[in-house]
Each structure stands twice: as structure tokens, then as C-alpha cells.
Amino acid sequence: MAKIKVQSVEPNIADLVNGWLKSYKLDYKLEQESLNTEIDQALNDYFSKSGGKGGNRPDAKLLLRSSDGKYYPILIEYKGYKDKLIKLDSEKNVANKNSKNEPDYKNINSYAVNGAVHYANAILHYTGYTDVIAIGVTGFKNDSGKLEHSIGVYYVSKSNFGVGQKVDDYTDLSFLKKENFDAFIEKVGLLSLTQEEIEKLKERREREIDASLVKLNNDIYQNEKGLGENDRVYLVAASIMATLGDVEHNVYPLKKSDLISSDEKDNTDGDIMVRKIKAFLAAKKLPEDKRDLIVRTLQNTLTTDNINKVENGETQLKRVFTKIVDDLGIYYKIGLTTDFTGKLFNEMYGWLGFTQDKLNDVVLTPSYVATLLVKLARVNKDSYVWDFATGSAGLLVATMNEMLIDAKDKIKSPEQLAIKSAQIKATQLLGLEILSSVYMLAILNMIMMGDGSSNILNKDSLKDFNGNYGFGNTNDKFPANAFVLNPPYSAPGNGMVFVEKALSMMEKGYAAIIIQNSAGSGKASGYNKKILKHSTLLASIKMPIDLFVGKSSVQTNVYVFRVGEAHQKDDVVKFIDFSNDGYTRSNRKKASCNLFDTDNAKGRYQEVVDLVRYGKSKLNIFTEKEYYEGTIDPENGADWNQTSPIDTKPTLEDFKKTVSDYLAWEVSTLLKNQDNENERLGK
Hints:
Layout: H1 10-23, E1 29-30, H2 37-45, E2 60-65, E3 71-78, H3 105-110, H4 112-126, E4 131-141, E5 147-157, E6 165-168, H5 178-189, H6 195-223, H7 229-244, H8 269-283, H9 288-302, H10 305-308, E7 310-311, E8 314-315, H11 316-332, H12 340-348, H13 356-361, H14 367-376, E9 385-387, H15 394-410, H16 414-427, E10 429-432, H17 436-448, E11 456-457, E12 482-485, H18 496-504, E13 509-516, H19 525-531, E14 535-542, E15 556-563, E16 573-577, E17 583-585, E18 595-597, H20 601-614, E19 627-630, H21 652-680
Parallel strand pairs: 3-4, 9-10, 9-12, 10-11, 12-13, 14-16
Antiparallel strand pairs: 1-2, 2-3, 4-5, 5-6, 7-8, 13-15, 14-15, 16-19, 17-18
Helix pairs in contact: 2-4, 4-11, 6-11, 6-12, 7-8, 7-9, 7-11, 7-17, 8-9, 12-17, 14-15, 15-16, 18-19
């Protein structure tokens, strides 16, 4: 007998929900109706539920305002089958991505909540809205012919990386009524992710970012000719700044449609983008001279004739801008706490005209290593941290995150927390980067990660820096009490020249650096001896040989210092062999993930921090072969890479084992000879 096909009740669900919205006296819009230009354009620009271009049309949509004046887009999707409300993955997240981190179009198309969350991500990607409510409704007719329904309500925002969080269970949508909406938003505000959930989502997003960066790099490199090496990097930086926006200060993200490809004087696509960047930087309240420096640097690329030349109704600038926004917008607009531009740089470093030596110098510190350095430097909410070779500012991003977490843990007044957070970003971080193209990435990174860009300086830290703030109170010394560094290894002493200068300018505090291993075994002995006259070496940590995947294998060590106290010959140094950090790495370019926690990596990293701070009592995962407490000669400077001594004196147990092995061999030989003799005699 042929199986009876179940009839969809979607029209009935639509009538039901639209009836509710009408009874609530809400100004809702149906599938074909316009909500506003910005949202309409975003839905049109985002990839469709089937993977094509545009055509995203929620069944119903609203724009509601809470009592604090903030607007929330509400996107509703209907389905008409019993089991089509939502599809979750193994981690209970809305399953809109498959195992390869690609859109799962089947789920997005088939399930009501999944479709609504898809629409919400279009809003996050292409508009200035940061918080969206995604609602799915489906149902069926029971045996009595009565319509039954189920509702899924999810909060999709920058804070949950666009994945979405369930708000609560509901039987209707009356929480959208004007008199109920503030209470609903208050409930949304109480939603939070655990640190473990945040870390999982970050790792997932980072894998997606890697894939998107590869795609962007290949596309621009192969198809966009005539762009200089630095120009390409500046175009990416400019496009991101222009589309970030600052809605609170009435600076709206630059849209693709805003670039009109005109050849009118002062109104080219480049002129339009420059004006938007100026407005954005002003809204961020960056010092005027800092804003001028950034604009001048980017303007030289954005306003050139070639890139603004109109061909077939479109400029090269608009074409490149479109690729950047389409491929990357969803990631950089969702406020990731990761070294996004560091990843960007590592993918596109081939664009920059470095020599091979210089290329090897500009290496992204993996985020988990950056966090390790920050913790070893004992950074907290009251720290003043500087980095003398900041690169794309990955270490300062990790620093800022740690400081903000500590502030949140210790300050319970929302008002005081806001004041402290602003202070951290504006006055407690300082970074120096000499390469202008990399400097622009550092600026961009700190802006995206919370705007700690005020004191990122385009200076030579060895020649042009006197220890003062770079902007604002330029006559005041930066009161550094923490130092983190991954220096260029081609610099004198493998980069220890930076360490010596930085620590000599500090009165107290802690420092953690990662550097080529040879710096501690003779290559930098002169600098090391100078350092030990004012700072104490607390620990020497041997890192995995394959730590920097994709670069030539180089042995690195992390050195940890207490600043302001000369090293004494009897001071104990903790030597840790961290060759096995718990991670397995691969260098497969097409792999969705090249880093795997195979041996309790997170536990090992925490134990290293504890061992450096508290000593042998914290030994748990590591053995005494991997942890050794010894001393160095402050007048040597080449004895920083020690290992646990091997005791060659035989023990009684060694003797017993040797005798046992010998007797076993003797018996075996005698038996074998007896067997041979019996065989010869024919027995």
C-alpha cells in the first residue's frame, strides 16, 4: 500500500501567528513586504537558504524598540510539519553548519528555527544591528483535526557568535507585546555562555575564518591585478573599518550599494570610503593625530586613479570591497576575542614584499600561547602592559581579554566596571610596530577586539621610543609593570635586544617572552647578562618544536622574569620541558582543523602556569624528568636552557635486574644447548 503523504499545515500556522501579531497591534511585515532598506538589503546580499545569492524572505518580520531606545529585529519562519521546528548538533547548538564547517543547507531549509537563525546572521553580517531575535513556528493537525503548534525562540547576537541561544519555552508570541517586551529583553540580557562554551564556539569560528581567508586570498591574488603588496593589505583594513560602523554615534556601516562607481571629482568610491573611515575613527574618539596617520596611510591606496577607474559600470575598489564583506563580514562584525587580523596576516603575508628573513620574523603567536604568556606575566585588571614588537597585536588582544575578564570577576558595580573597562582599553596597553603595513593590522585588530588602539605606535621601539604614552598624555611615562613579547628573531641576540631595553625601562613587574632557543644558550649572552643585573629569571620553558606550524621548525623557549630585582647566583630557576604540550599539529592546507587536543593540552598549559608561580608542589601531569629546579650563573648568560640531570649511578634495583637478566640468559642458553645435543644424538 502506498504511503500517505502528510499534508503541510504551514498556511494554517501562518494564519495563526499572523493573527497573534495583529491582535498585539504590532507593525509586522510579511514575506514580500519591506521592513527597512538596511535589513532588506542585508537579506538580499546574504547567501540564500539553498546556497544561492539572495532571496532570503522571512515569513514575518518586525523591528521592535525597547524602553532604552535600542531596536531589535525579529525574524519569524513558519513550517508545517510536526518534527520540523529545530535541528541541533551534538553540542546542542543550532545545526546550520556541517562537519566541514560549511553551511548545512538541508537543515537551514527544512527547520523553522534553523531558517530564522540563518536570516538573523544575515542581519549581523550586513547591518549595524548586534542583537536579533529568531523565531521558528511549526505544527500539525492531531487525530481530531485540531491544529497543534510548537515555538522556538532564539537570541542571535555578537555575544554568542551568531550561533544563537534558546531564550525560553513559549506557547504564543505575546512576549512581543509592547507591555511585555522589556521583560523579555531583560530575560535575554541574563543569558550567558559558560567559559567552556565560549571556547568551543571560538575554536569553531576560527576554523571557519581560516577557510574564508584562504578563499579571499586566492580570489584577490588571482583575479585582481595591478595592486601593490601593501595596497592589498590596506584595502582589507579599509574595507573592514568602513563596514564596522558605530551605530550608537550615528555612523552606519558602509554598504556595497553606497559605492556607486562614479568618476565624479571628490565622489569616487575611494572618496566615499575615506569619508566613512574618517567618521568611524572620529566616533571611536581616537586622538586626532592618530586618526590623521591612519587616514593618510589608507588614503594613498583608496584614492588612486587605477582602483577607482570605472569599467563595465564597476570599479576595482567596489569589486574587492564586495569580496571582503561577503567572505569575512560575519566574522569580524561579531566581535571575536581572537587574533583575527593576525590570522588575516598569516594568510596574506605573501602579499607583502618581505625578504625571506623578514617574512620569518613576522609570525603569529598562536592564541593559546599568547594566553600562556599573559598568565605567566601575571596580568590582571590593574596591569600596564607593553609589547615592543607587537606585530598584528595578538599578544595585546590576549592581554586585554585577560584584563577585562579579571575586571568582570572582581568589580560588581556595572557603572564601575564600565569605567574600568574603558580605562584598560585607553590607557593600560601600549604596543610598538615598525612595519607600517603590519602596524595597520595591529590598529585594526585592537579596534575590532574592543578598541584598545589608542597607544599602538608606528615606531622603532629601539630607536624612537622614550617610554612615554604615544597619544593623549604624551609627557607622561607609561607605567609598565608587565611585558609580553614574540620578537623578530633576526634582531640582535635573536631579539633579546628588545627584552633588555623594555625591562631596563620598568621599575617592577613580570615579563614573559617566547624566543628562539639559542638566545638562552649563547647567541644573546651579552644581553642576557645585562638583563640579569636588574631582573630575575624565574623560569625557562622548552616549547614544542612544531609550535609554529607552516614555518620552518625552530626550537623556542619561553623565559619568565621578575623585573626590578637583580638575579642572584642562588636564585632558583624552574626549568620545564614542555615539548609535549598536549596538542597534535598538522600542516595540511586543506584540513578543516590543524590543531587537536590529544593529551589534556588545557590541563598542561594551566599546570605550567602553576609550576612557574608555586613550584614543585603543583606537579601532577608532568614528571620530575620534565620539571627541574636549578640555578644559573648571572655572569654567564648562556646557561638558560637546562634539563633535568640524569643520575648515572646504578642503584641496587639496577643491579638486581642486571643479575636477573643474566641468569635468565644463562638458563636459556643451557636449555638451547641441551636441545641441540638431544637432536644430535637422535633423542
